[in-house]
Amino acid sequence: MDRLLSAKSAAARLRIAATTLYDWIAQSDAGEFTVRGQPFSISYYQGGRRGQGRIHIEAQEVERLKDAMRVLPPLRHVRRSATSRQPYPGITVPLGRPDD
């Protein structure tokens, strides 16, 4: 079984405040939490008789959240310089004698 982390240590791994993590969990419970524009839900455990105890999150869930937050730089396509397909660059009219 995966190791359970307290909300404080999970927030420290995410490098956010514990209150921010609690806010994210509340948004997740309401179905309103998004990461990089994608809907995301956070799985967690809450102890206590009526579910009012401390929150614990699996370390794997914290890593899943970190992966969702990861930003990858976009791939840059190497563009070749534009080559002129005209045999006489700069001349834009048809060559030859004008039709009478």
Describe the fold and architecture.
- It is rod-shaped, with a radius of gyration of 29 Å.
- It has helices spanning 7-14, 18-30, 59-69, and strands at 4-6, 34-35, 38-39, 45-46, 55-58.
- A hairpin with a 2-residue loop joins strand 2 and strand 3 (38-39).
- It contains three helices and five strands, in the order βααββββα.
- Helix 1 (7-14) crosses helix 2 (18-30).
- The chain starts with a strand and ends in a 31-residue tail after the last helix.
- Helix content is 32%, strand content 13%.
- It is α+β, with helices and mostly antiparallel strands and 100 residues long.
- Strands 1-5-4 form a three-stranded antiparallel sheet.
Topology:
Elements lengths: L3 E3 H8 L3 H13 L3 E2 L2 E2 L5 E2 L8 E4 H11 L31
Antiparallel strand pairs: 1-5, 2-3, 4-5
Helix pairs in contact: 1-2
Number of helices: 3
Cα separation of the termini:
90 Å
Overall 3D shape: rod-shaped
Mean pLDDT: 87
Characterize the largest beta sheet: strand count, sense, and whether it forms a barrel.
3 strands, antiparallel
Runs with pLDDT <50, length 5+?
Answer: none
Helix content: 25-40%
Q: What's the count of strands?
A: 5
Q: What letter string, H or E per element, gives the SSE order?
A: EHHEEEEH
Strand content: 5-15%
Oligomer: single chain
Overall SS class: alpha+beta
Structure keywords:
alpha+beta, 3 helices, three-stranded antiparallel sheet, 100 residues
